[in-house]
Amino acid sequence: MEKAAEIADLNRRDFLEKLANQKIDVFTVDFEDLEEELKRG
Known about the structure:
Number of domains: 1
Strand content: under 5%
Order of helices and strands: HHH
Distance between the termini: 28 Å
Radius of gyration: 14 Å
Number of helices: 3
Largest sheet: none
Oligomer: single chain
């Protein structure tokens, strides 16, 4: 993501804001992995 922001000539915060404005989800969650991680504590 950092490289993509650099290519777009934006800092990371502004890059994420632009993506959010376009309703592009960049934070994907694998719920099975999350559940396993929560079980491990």
